[in-house]
Amino acid sequence: MSTHHTGALPANPETATLEGKNKVLGFWLFLGAEVVLFGCLFATYIALRNSVPDGPTAQEIFKLKTVGWSTFILLTSSLTSVFAIIAMHRQKLGQLLGWLIVTVLFGLTFLGLEIYEFVEYVHEGHKFTTSAFSTSFYTLVGFHGAHVAFGVCWITLLIIQGFKKGLTVVTAPKFYVAGLYWHFIDLVWVFIFTVVYLMGKVGH
Description:
Elements: H1 18-48, H2 58-61, H3 64-89, H4 93-123, H5 132-165, H6 172-202
Helix pairs in contact: 1-5, 1-6, 3-4, 3-6, 4-5, 5-6
């Protein structure tokens, strides 16, 4: 694999150019919109979490062991993405791509556990249309899962681009904003774990 970069890069290559600065700024604005969207989904879930009629309740179906492992894996992936950005600032392309590959593998593992979790819930009668609670649960958690899947695909494409083009002031902002995105979905999961799973399991 090629570990070269084009010329000597500045200390913060992600904002070394006007285009890079605009990408980072634009992405922060995008994340602001995402916060509002997830906030609406959280508010809907909180309002409907006790609307279970004849369906199973959160206490009956949630398995904190599985969710705990999912949380550990996703938070660990956030750490590996930090290592990737540190490697980028040190202009170590090989280490950057290596840590991103590990991040993607952790993301895929998380998705696998989430799919397993959903299948278990469906078998226990907790389907999307079972109750207002189940609909709001699958919408919120599934929407987050879709974000993880998108992040996995995005970072995978950046890894391929990194192998082809190396580390430059053009590719650096892309790696950086992907790292921001990954931290964001990890942070959202912390709220999901707390609001949905912990509060659902210990009581309302």
